[in-house]
Amino acid sequence: MSTTPSLHSVIGRDHFITETWAALERKSLYMNDLRRIGKTRIIRRMHAEPLAGWLSSFSDLEGTHTAEEFAARVYKDSTAVLTTKKWALRKMSALLGRVAGTELMGVLKLPDGQPAPWKEVLRTTFEDISDVLDQQPEGTRMVFFWDEVPFMLDNIANKQGKDHAAQVLDLLRELSQRHDRIRLLLTGSIGIHHVLGSLWSGGYKGSPLNHMDLIQPGPLAPEDAKEFATSVIVRRRLRCADKGACAETLSTLASHVPFYIEKLTACLPLDTDLTPTHIQQALDHVLTSVHNDWDLDYYFRRVEVVFPKTKKLVLVILDTIAGSAAAALSFQEIRQQVSAHMIVDDDEVLREHLKLLGMDHYLVRGANGYRFYLPLIHRWWKISRELK
Ligand SMILES: Nc1ncnc2c1ncn2[C@@H]1O[C@H](COP(=O)(O)OP(=O)(O)OP(=O)(O)O)[C@@H](O)[C@H]1O
Ligand SMILES: [Mg+2]
Do 122 and 35 fall within a single domain? Predict the structure, then answer.
């Protein structure tokens, strides 16, 4: 077990990464999970150390606002990856002529100075990549790791219209299906279903992700989270009466999420012989304080944004589950307890909201019913809402 502290190490994801490369052999993927769980770390690591036989490209698309910018980005990323290969992007070179690579505000220009049509740029770039891959040893593939895809789609929808965002998704689907040696691994900090929901409400009828498999990394395994906590204790030079016990407490209280392990560790005093009780007290202090940078209040604010018309129902559902002493509550138990606070005249509305709260990673549904996905968020919700 290594306890060498490193700011950029990726602990506990080896198995998930191996599985993800295997899944990419078969299909493109959408990685979906709670914010801060470690999605970006995973794809950055996969890009930094691709599996043999893979070429890879990484882009954070949060700052991309138009379909034209996106297409230019994909072209430029592809040239960066493929310049070392024998075959250049020949069809794109022909399209762009001697002005190849010239941009105006992030948009590629044609020889006549007009913006290059974004669909053509994407289609031609993918064709070129396929041609290059055909010249590589058999089985060579390329993967695009694209982070913050929902933000980009939202940006495009706001700036160019929902129809444009839908066309981008449809084209990606078309390209994935046509080019079997090119894969996509998409992710983002907000759920893509929100963007899709908005496109559907605008009349779009497509299911642009059904050519992809969904993957979810989840928190670290408990032993990996403990190893990570140990490495942070060492890095921060904390004094622990029993390092193993402190690491265990840190990782459990932080729900095995590295981001929260780091945050909690940063709250601990350097001049104390720490025990699990100190760690517990530090967490309680953070969760009751309004002055902290954990941004857990996001989960409350988000209810207002995502459920503007049914905020009350959502709060009552979450309060009911958070306030219960049971490990999980069944649908019937939730319905009964929610009914004590408000009229629930349609079970389907309740079912739908439980499903949506699952998609947004507030809740998970297990064999015994619904519970909070992360015990840490459960604990914070209970404290911040002053539930018994
Ligand atoms: N496997 C890991 N090993 C070490 N540190 C990690 C690991 N995963 C995540 N972290 C830490 O947690 C932080 C958040 O991780 P990351 O940015 O990958 O989360 P994310 O799921 O992409 O979040 P968001 O949804 O907000 O984009 C990282 O900056 C890093 O400090
Ligand atoms: Mg991220």
Answer: yes
Supply the DSSP symbol for 36.
T
Ligand 1 pocket test: which of 4, 9, 35, 40 has the largest number of ligand atoms within 8 Å of its C-beta?
40
218 CB within 6 A, ligand 1: no
> Residue 207: which residues within 8 A CB-CB, separation 6 or more?
none
Q: Ligand 1 pocket, 189 CB below 6 A?
A: yes
Say if ligand 1 is within 6 A of residue 11 CB. Answer: yes
Which residues 6+ apart lie within 8 Å of 289 measured at CB? none
Query: What pLDDT, on a 0 to 100 scale, did the predictor assign at position 345?
Result: 85
CA distance 203 to 180: 30
- Report which secondary-structure segment, H or E, holds 362: none
> Is 234 in the same domain as 206?
no
**Nearest ligand, CA 189:** 1
Ligand 1 mutation target, pool 61, 259, 360, most atoms within 8 A of CB: 259
Question: Regarding beta strands 103-104 and 107-108, do their DSSP bridges make them parallel or antiparallel, or are they unpaired?
Answer: antiparallel
CATH number of residue 359's parent domain = 1.10.10.10
Coil, strand or helix: which one is 371?
Answer: strand
Q: Tell me how far apart the alpha carbons of residues 15 and 17 are, in angstroms, rounded to a whole number.
A: 5
* Per-residue pLDDT tens digits for 329-342: 999 999 999 999 99
pLDDT digits (tens, 9 = 90+) for 187-216: 998 889 889 988 998 888 888 888 999 999
pTM for the predicted model, two decimal places: 0.93
Whole-number Å distance between alpha carbons of 264 and 287: 11
DSSP E strand stretches across 199-327: 212-215
How many angstroms is it from 55 CA to the middle of ligand 1?
Answer: 23
Q: For residue 262, what pLDDT is reported?
A: 96
What residue's CA is closest to ligand 1, atom 6? 258
Maximum distance among all Cα pairs of the chain, rounded to whole angstroms = 72
Question: What residues make up the domain containing 237?
Answer: 222-288
